[in-house]
Amino acid sequence: MRAFIGDLLLFRMGQEQDKLLHKRLYNALRYAILDGSLPPHSRLPASRELAVELGISRNTVLTTYEQLQAEGYVVSRRGSGTFVAQTAPDTFLMAFSNTEKSEDARLSSAVSHRGDYLLRHVSASPCQWGAFIPGVPDVSAFPHPLFSRIQARISRRPEPERLSYSCTGGTPELQHALVDYLRIARGVRCQDDQILITEGIHQAIDLVARMLADAGDMAWVEEPSYWGIRHVLAMNAVQITPVAVDASGLVPPERLMPPPRLIFVTPSHQYPLGVVMSLERRQRLLALARQHGSWIVEDDYDSEFRFSGQPVPALQGLIDDAPVVYIGTFSKTVYPGLRLGYLVLPRPLKEALKRAHAELYRGGHTLIQMALAEFINGGHYSAHIRRMRLLYSRRRAFLGELIERHCGTQALSDFSDNAGLHLILNLPDDVDDVAVAASANAQNILVRPLSLYYLTAQRKRGLLMGFASLPEAQMEEAFATLLTCLRHHCPQVLVKV
Question: Distance between CA 152 and CA 136 in Å, rounded?
Answer without folding.
Answer: 26
